[in-house]
Every structure is written in C-alpha cells, then in structure tokens.
Design brief:
Blueprint: H1 4-33, E1 34-38, E2 52-57, E3 62-63, E4 79-80, E5 89-93, E6 100-107, E7 112-116, E8 119-122, E9 125-126, E10 129-131, E11 135-138, E12 161-170, E13 176-181, E14 194-195, E15 200-204, E16 226-227, E17 231-241, E18 260-261
Antiparallel strand pairs: 1-2, 2-17, 3-4, 5-6, 5-17, 6-15, 7-8, 7-14, 8-9, 10-12, 11-12, 12-13, 15-16, 17-18
Subcellular location: Membrane
Family: Belongs to the peptidase S26 family.
Main location: membrane
C-alpha cells in the first residue's frame, strides 16, 4: 500500500501532460493551418448561409502577414505559393476595417470587371447564366444580429416565404456557382469597368444585391481591390450550420449542411 499512492499520482500527472501537449499541438495546428469562421451575414447566400461554421485552409495560397501567427512569416507582402483561382471562396482581411470578410474570387490581376444590367462581364465577355429555380427562405430574424432577409416579393410578413431569383453563373475557366437577385436596377447592377491591378483581386458576394464587395471602391468607403497580402485562406468545407441565434443551440443545426463542400 505504501507504493500505490505515488504510482497513482504519477499516472495522473502523465495523463495531464498528455492532454496538455495534445491541446498545444492542436492549437499550433489550428493556428498554422486552419482558422474557424462563422458566417455572420447573408452576402454569400445561397452558397453560404448565416450560421454556417467552417474552417479556412490557411495553406491554400501560402503565407501572408494575416495568415501567419506570431510574426513567424515576413509581414511585407505575401509568399504566394498558388494564386487564388477565379471562382474560389476565400477569406481575407478587409484592407481598411481590420475585420475578416468572405467572398468569391471574381477578378484576377489584369482582368477587367463590369456589371451591366445585373450581369457580370469579365474581360469584355458576359458570364453565362441560367435560371435554376427560386431560392426560398422564411422571412425571420437570422443569426445573432437578428438580420432580416430582403425578398424580391416584398412586402412579406414575418414567417412568410421570402423569394429571391436564383441563377447558375459560369466563370471563364468553367467554375460555376449560384447567384441570387433581389431586385432589378440595384445600385451596383451597373458599374464602370474595373481593371484589377497586379497583385490584387476583385471579390464579389453571391447574393449580388446584398453584398458589400469590390464593386464599391475603397475611396468611397467600400471594399475595393484586395491586395494579396490580405488573403487569409480558402473556404473548403462547412463543418456544421446553425439556424439559431447561437452555435451552441444544437437543436437548430441544419442536418443537410454537415461537411458540405463550398463550391
């Protein structure tokens, strides 16, 4: 009996050390390679819904000042191992507001981008679109901010069906995704032609009439072009999704969005 207590204490201590180092390794792995992101707004509907929880692949494009932890990487510029591809969904740091945004890569360096009558033009050519059926959701408060969706069939009472037109848009290179339309003649349905500078990117939200993106220049308080050093990573897969006011409300999790690929 005299030797039982020390052995038991040693066993507990070893367990504590194992758990500690496991947490440290998991923390380093998370910091270096992945970053959690919770979708706070509806600017990327219907690809991403308010309450989607995903991990951002921070190694997708290489290192930057905003993807590197603890000043482990150069802070001037980005080591761009792979250029973002047109059509990918990426997370980046807003160049002037110091907050993270998530949008779709639309324009690469050297591209010309324009909206004409709500339709996207890239390098002088319209991106093909095809109607695929309306996107319908309930008009109610969404997420912790209690955001109310806008509808093409407004006015819609609370609890009613909120409708948006939905189209499949195909970008140069063949990547396709859904985009939504809430109203014709919106402020950003017609824009000047933007030429994307070297080392920068043009981003847009899929919910075209409800997205603050590169169509709004930085000079007037918008997003503007995003330099490569502000890229954080690529959104690859939704882990789970909550339709409630908190991620902890597991009874509001959407069963059809577990491990759903972001396309």
């Amino acid at each position: 009996m005299a030797t039982a207590a020390p052995k038991k204490k040693d066993g507990i201590w070893e367990t504590v050390k194992t758990i500690f180092w496991a947490l440290v390794i998991a923390g380093i792995f998370r910091t270096l390679f992945f970053q959690p992101f919770w979708i706070p707004s509806g600017s990327m509907k219907d690809t991403l819904l308010i309450g989607d929880f995903l991990f951002v692949n921070k190694m997708a494009y290489g290192y930057s000042a905003h993807s590197c932890p603890f000043s482990m990487c150069p802070i001037s510029g980005r080591i761009l191992e792979r250029e973002p591809q047109r059509g990918e969904v990426a997370v980046f740091r807003h160049p002037t507001r110091n907050v993270d945004f998530i949008k779709r890569v639309i324009g690469l360096p050297g591209d010309t981008i324009q909206m004409r009558g709500g339709r996207l033009w890239i390098n002088g050519e319209p991106a093909p679109t095809a109607p695929v059926g309306d996107f319908i959701e309930i008009k109610e408060q969404q997420g912790p901010q209690g955001l109310i969706p806008r509808c093409i069939n407004d006015p819609v009472p609370e609890g009613g069906q909120c409708i948006k037109e939905r189209f499949t848009e195909t970008l140069p290179g063949g990547n396709s995704h859904d985009v939504l339309n809430i109203m014709d003649g919106w402020v950003a349905d017609d824009t000047p032609t933007f030429t994307v500078p070297a080392g920068q990117y043009f981003f847009m939200g899929d919910n075209r009439d409800n997205s603050e993106d590169s169509r709004f220049p930085a000079e007037i308080g918008g997003l503007g072009f995003v330099p490569s050093e502000f890229l954080i990573g690529r959104a690859d897969r939704i882990m789970f999704s909550s339709a409630g006011r908190s991620l902890l409300y597991f009874w509001t999790w959407r069963s059809d969005r577990f491990f759903k690929a972001v396309e």
